[in-house]
Amino acid sequence: DLAQIGVTGLAVMGRNLARNIARHGYSVAIHNRSFGRTQSLVADHGDEGTFIPSESAADFVASIERPRKIIIMVKAGAATDAVIDELVPLLDQGDILIDAGNAHFPDTIRRENALAAQGIHFVGMGVSGGEEGALNGPSIMPGGAPESYTTLGPILEDISAKVDGVPCATYVGPDGAGHFVKMVHNGIEYADMQLIAEAYDLLRQGLGISAAEIGEIFAQWNNGDLESFLIEITADVLSHIDAETGKAFVDIVLDQAEQKGTGRWTVQNALDLGVPITGIAEATFARALSGSVPQRTAGRVLPANAGEWNVTDRDAFIEDVRQALYASKVVAYSQGFDQIAAASAEHNWNIDRGAMARIWRGGCIIRARFLNRITEAYERDADLPLLLADPYFTQIVGDGVSAWRRIVALAATNGVPTPAFSSSLAYYDGVRAAGLPANLIQAQRDFFGAHTYRRTDKEGTFHTEWSGDRSEIQE
Ligand code: NDP
């Protein structure tokens, strides 16, 4: 019998995805560049379902029913191209090739174009949830031609995470849309993590309490609006004791954060689109700063001239930090959804932002209770220009804005760096301001570069003869 679907690339992700598909009753053809991984999957988990192993790509392709559905789960970049090049000559018109790795979306657009010309449906598919998600239900963000989702969708929805019975998988949009949305998901993940880290730092410095005590606070927060996977694991991590030293685990971890690049891609794309995603950008730069060892070493001489912490009402302070965290988090998501809207318009992807929030409720790293609120906001208004301006979010952030200001002011006064809290508040004040000092920027630009300006009192484009008689001309 032929397999219903194939998976090539059987490292942690591909192996678990293949097992997940087999456990749902589908027969799965499996293949990997080095045959050992294929053999060990059959040896270790062959009893979980129907696996059809092949050593060669030709046998693998021949073992799948037509039109074929083949998931590629290999290292992103050149490896993905190598696998595509090997498979394509073996495929038939109408077969569906799915790249489930972390591809950069411009690569996906390029691959989709090239393969469409050859009659192959190419689906760039974001998968989030790490190895655990791949096995037990990830969040799945497939792009590509809509007709491929007709065939593929039922399997993806079967193997995805479910929240209230609703699958965390849906068609995202043409060509690179799926990988794009996965990229922004990762960018938001960066912001979420940085905000949590800043909250932890404020509690630690403000209250002088232990990691375990902070862990208890996070565990409590996880019972309310902040309920999310990242808050939950933070509580878990903070209560963990290092076996070797008996100290709190976080206290023995070196404070230099690394990154694999999806945060950077998100920020680079936002710069290209001109969308201010300050929370994600600050989170990405905060990781970079933490790893800037020569600068941090040299920087130790800089005077602080900071105040001293003197928190008199412990509970009120904790509640302020919680509200500042929630408000900053809403800003980070609002900005990320703006970026999705801008890219969707630029590439004609027609992405349903409410559906993206829905499929992020389970399986993925940023899964959170409040994503329901985002889905509801876009149900109220699919074209909402600013998530913060949805009535629910306006109220919740408005209720917390005084706490947010107190926390950012305290952090500045006491010399605690809170780039994500502070920049999110600055964005909030910027986006709600009736007027911004950009009038002066425009005047300066016209002065030194004759870049022209518009007036508040009449239509048209104007330039002042700054080096001459300062008369104004209409362009
Ligand atoms: P890796 O990214 O470590 O990639 C290893 C796999 O790629 C192996 O199967 C390897 O084959 C194959 N490979 C590498 N180079 C080539 C090549 N030139 N030709 C053919 N095959 C090649 O595996 P992961 O399972 O960690 O990740 C797979 C994909 O999923 C990546 O794109 C990753 O970014 C993405 N991803 C990973 C997540 C995670 O949590 N790890 C989460 C979400 C997505 P061989 O065994 O022969 O070396």
UniProtKB/TrEMBL annotation:
Record bears the keyword Oxidoreductase: yes
Stretches assigned to the 6-phosphogluconate dehydrogenase C-terminal domain: 178-467
Binding residues annotated for substrate, in chain numbering: 102, 128-130, 185-186, 190, 260, 287, 445, 451
Pfam families linked: 6PGD, NAD_binding_2
UniProt-listed SUPFAM superfamilies: 6-phosphogluconate dehydrogenase C-terminal domain-like, NAD(P)-binding Rossmann-fold domains
EC number: 1.1.1.44
InterPro entries named in the record: 6-PGluconate_DH-like_C_sf (IPR008927), 6PGD_dom2 (IPR013328), 6PGDH_C (IPR006114), 6PGDH_Gnd/GntZ (IPR006113), 6PGDH_NADP-bd (IPR006115), 6PGdom_BS (IPR006184), NAD(P)-bd_dom_sf (IPR036291), Pgluconate_DH (IPR006183)
Any one of the GO BP annotations: pentose-phosphate shunt
Functional pathway: Carbohydrate degradation; pentose phosphate pathway; D-ribulose 5-phosphate from D-glucose 6-phosphate (oxidative stage): step 3/3
Record-listed NADP(+) binding positions: 9-14, 32-34, 74-76, 102
Enzyme active site: 182, 189
Functional description taken from the UniProt entry: Catalyzes the oxidative decarboxylation of 6-phosphogluconate to ribulose 5-phosphate and CO(2), with concomitant reduction of NADP to NADPH.
NCBIfam families: gnd, PRK09287.1
Assembly and interaction partners: Homodimer.
Family (UniProt): Belongs to the 6-phosphogluconate dehydrogenase family.
Protein name: 6-phosphogluconate dehydrogenase, decarboxylating
Organism: Rarobacter faecitabidus
